């Protein structure tokens, strides 16, 4: 059996995409998880691959957090570069 090395960031991305598929179930269970909130966190931490996936899934680039900041503002405040 051939095994391939998968980087840590790829593993995290695969896990996150799997979780995205479960979001309707999670929301029904009473836990509010939104694509926009995940986009905000991904931008804040400089996770460009995840930002791209979230935008493709329908996250809003102009969303604002409780202080009125957009994902782009959060990324620039944190001084993050894409990884």
Please provide a brief summary of the model.
The protein is an all-alpha fold. It has 4 helices and no strands. The N and C termini lie far apart (31 Å).
- CATH domain class name of the domain at 31-83: Mainly Alpha
Number of strands: 0
In round numbers, the mean pLDDT is 75
Topology pattern, helix = H, strand = E: HHHH
What is the CATH topology assignment of the domain at 31-83? Serine Threonine Protein Phosphatase 5, Tetratricopeptide repeat
Helix content: 55-70%
* CATH homologous superfamily identity of the domain at 31-83: Ankyrin repeat-containing domain
Number of helices: 4
Q: Which regions contain 5 or more consecutive residues with pLDDT less than 50? A: 25-32
List keywords for this structure.
83 residues; mainly alpha; Serine Threonine Protein Phosphatase 5, Tetratricopeptide repeat; 4 helices; globular
Structural topology:
Blueprint: H1 8-28, H2 35-45, H3 48-57, H4 71-78
Give your account of this protein's structure.
- The chain has helices at residues 8-28, 35-45, 48-57, 71-78.
- It starts with 7 loop residues before the first helix and ends in a 5-residue tail after the last helix.
- The chain is globular and about 30 Å long.
- Mean pLDDT is 75; it is low at 25-32.
- The chain contains 4 helices and no strands.
- It has a domain at 31-83: Serine Threonine Protein Phosphatase 5, Tetratricopeptide repeat (Alpha Horseshoe).
């Amino acid at each position: 059996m051939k095994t391939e090395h998968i980087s840590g960031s790829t593993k995290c991305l695969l896990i996150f995409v799997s979780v995205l598929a479960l979001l309707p179930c999670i929301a029904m269970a009473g836990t509010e998880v939104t694509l926009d909130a995940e986009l905000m966190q991904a931008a804040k931490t400089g996770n460009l691959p995840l930002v791209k996936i979230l935008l493709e899934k329908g996250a809003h680039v102009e969303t604002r957090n409780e202080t009125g900041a957009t994902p782009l503002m959060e990324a620039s405040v944190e001084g993050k570069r894409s990884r």
